[in-house]
Amino acid sequence: xxxxxxxxxGLVQPGGSLRLSCAASGSIFNIYTMGWYRQALGKQxxxxxxxxxxxxxxxxxSVKGRFTISRDNAKNTVYLQMNSLKPEDTxxxxxxxxxxxxxxxNYWGQGTQVTVSS
Length: 118
What we know:
The chain is mainly beta. The protein contains no helices and 11 strands. The strands form 2 sheets. Strands 2, 4, 5, 6, 9, 10 and 11 form a 7-stranded mixed β-sheet that branches. A 4-stranded antiparallel β-sheet has the order 1-3-8-7, with no helix packed on it.
């Protein structure tokens, strides 16, 4: 069984920074994609940043230049460094990954709340 566990959310003032972490655990043979989505209250879930199957990185236009995704392959962990945070970044942030264990599946973490407010 594969699990994604996020950490690092919280309350931060506008202009501040936060770093999210997502660790994948279980019987993992390969990780094809791994990244972050977010869902604000009353809105649809949207891509924030992800490592694609080809190994490249894709960012939402709204976070380019402010957020940086990185990973530690040895730890099956992906990070999201969020700088210059804005109130509109407030959302629940979800980790998502496409992983092969006993089968190839798409997995979601439980979500971590990020609130940007003064």
